Amino acid sequence: MSNVIYTPPDQVRSVAVLGTGSVGASWIALFLAHGLEVIAFDPSTQAAERVKAFVADAWPALRELGRTELASPPLERLSFATTPAEAARQADVIQENCPEHLDVKLALLAEVDAAADPGKIILSSTGGIPPTAMQQACTHPERLVVLHPFNPTHLIPLVEVVGGEKTSQAVLDWAMDFARLLHKQPILLHAEASGHMTNRLQFALVREAVACLVEGIASAKDIDAAVRYGLGPRWALMGSLLTLHLAGGPGGMQGILDHTAKAIQDWWTPKTTPVLTPEVIAKLVEAAQEVSRGEPVQDWVNWRDRGLVDVLKLQEKLGA
Hints:
This protein is 52% helix and 11% strand. By secondary structure, it is α/β, with parallel strands linked by helices. The protein folds into 2 domains: 180 residues, Rossmann fold (3-Layer(aba) Sandwich); 121 residues, N-(1-d-carboxylethyl)-l-norvaline Dehydrogenase, domain 2 (Orthogonal Bundle). An 8-stranded mixed sheet has the order 3-2-1-4-5-6-7-8, with helices on both faces. The two termini are 38 Å apart. This is 3-hydroxybutyryl-CoA dehydrogenase. It comes from Pusillimonas minor.
């Protein structure tokens, strides 16, 4: 539908947030910080109370990052609709965060697509379902695009923009621009894949961490320390490809490959592909207790978010 006119990203005033679990609540905090009105929907009777508590906890970090100057969250801008269709009709943009089950998403998207004006873009937070699979529920599939965030959504800059077979170029461009207005760092994926791309990258490392644990190469604590103190500091500044390029010294990428290509090929070939058997799951649960020292998850979440603020401020300072 090339004649459809979408509200320009900088003129969006309200967002329908469908699903207010950890991802949805995090989006809500970010939207409120950027002065947007939020019309939320969630079937849980405790949703409103849970979201308000989440936003209050997230607000200090958002202020520290300069995303808002307000001392407290403007909860008067947050309301809850009784149905997804009602939320979709009221808002300028629709943002979906329902469970990662295709049948659930199809049912929700069919309802929303039928209720919302064709000029309203639908953004999905799905972490792995290809958008083409979801577009089958839509009469207006060209306006559906994946805007996949990373936990915690209100802090981590990266979002993956993924179009389906019927997503229009105008909608892809719109999603990239809207993400930038939210102080996000959007990347555009050129092909659909299960899990998109960044999950593919991170779970390659997770797979190797689990393999090292299963093989008894090191303790859980030291496996995490290798990432935190060896890989993490560089990765906060640059990605794997630039890291490899710089490892070659003056010769760059060509230099490192001339000298160590055979070794690199051996190092990145998986020695073990762990299977999540009951025994391995038990080992991972035990490992989690070791690396967290048995302290509550929420305490670690609070510690992580405080630390992320400092890391993100450093990234913004250094730029590219």
